[in-house]
Amino acid sequence: MRLPLAGPTRVSMVGLGWVAAAVVAGLIGITAIGAVGDGIVGFSTAPLSAQEVDRQLAASEAGTDPNAPTPGTSGSPSASATAPPATTPPAVTPPPGGDSPATTQPPVQPPPEPPTASETRLISTDGGDILTQCRGASPQVVSATPAQGFQRETDPDEGDGEARVDFESERLRVRVEITCSNGQPDWTVETD
């Protein structure tokens, strides 16, 4: 006659059952996430080789399509499948009796670089703290954090050489006007 499982043996079997169920559920979850991820991002998640990086950098500097295969190499299947079709500029024909086209295009100038930002400065007031910096002669508010009990009122006219931040509570209003002097933030604080 066989005795039913009892005591520590039964607890061990239940514990093993739970562990097995957790492992199976984890594997199903990992498989599902992998399948969904492949469907979302496609198969182009493989890292580029050093040659592919060099080719794409050279192509972007030259202004050509970085996904177009170059002689001796082949494009990746995912890149060539998603690359737009190549277009050629329309042909320019010379005017009758002339040697060259009548119009010439001026050389392309790169856009001017924006002024560099100054060091970020902290302005602490009773109404809150402001982080600000200057870009050339224009002050920029990086962040404005009101103190407890205060709210920040925004100034729609920020720019044009001046920025303003107002902190208001039921009893007090703090106004900070920020300008740039020699490329560094300068400010005045008014309390009402």
Q: In a few lines, what is going on in this structure?
A:
About 7% of the residues have low confidence. The chain has three helices and seven strands; from the N terminus they run αααβββββββ.
Architecture overview:
There is one protein chain. With 192 residues, the protein is α+β, with helices and mostly antiparallel strands. Among the domains are: 8-42; 121-191, no CATH class. 28% of the residues lie in helices and 24% in strands. It contains three helices and seven strands, in the order H-H-H-E-E-E-E-E-E-E. The protein has helices at residues 8-41, 50-62, 77-82; strands spanning 121-124, 128-135, 138-146, 151-153, 163-168, 173-181, 184-191. The strands form two sheets. A four-stranded antiparallel β-sheet has the order 4-5-6-7, with no helix packed on it. Strands 1-2-3 form a three-stranded antiparallel β-sheet, with no helix packed on it. A hairpin with a 4-residue loop joins strand 5 (163-168) and strand 6 (173-181). The longest helix is centred in the N-terminal third of the chain and has 34 residues, at 8-41. It starts with 7 loop residues before the first helix and ends with a strand. Mean pLDDT is 75; it is low at 72-85.
The shape, in one word, is flat
- Total strand count, please? 7
Output the helix-strand order: HHHEEEEEEE
Largest sheet at a glance? 4 strands, antiparallel
Q: What helical percentage do the residues reach?
A: 25-40%
Q: Name the assembly state.
A: single chain
Strand order across the biggest sheet? 4-5-6-7
Low-confidence parts:
72-85
Radius of gyration: 33 Å
Class of secondary structure makeup: alpha+beta
Q: Please report which band the strand proportion falls in: under 5%, 5-15%, 15-25%, 25-35%, 35-45% or over 45%.
A: 15-25%
* Integer average pLDDT: 75
| Helical run tally | 3
Distance between the termini: 94 Å
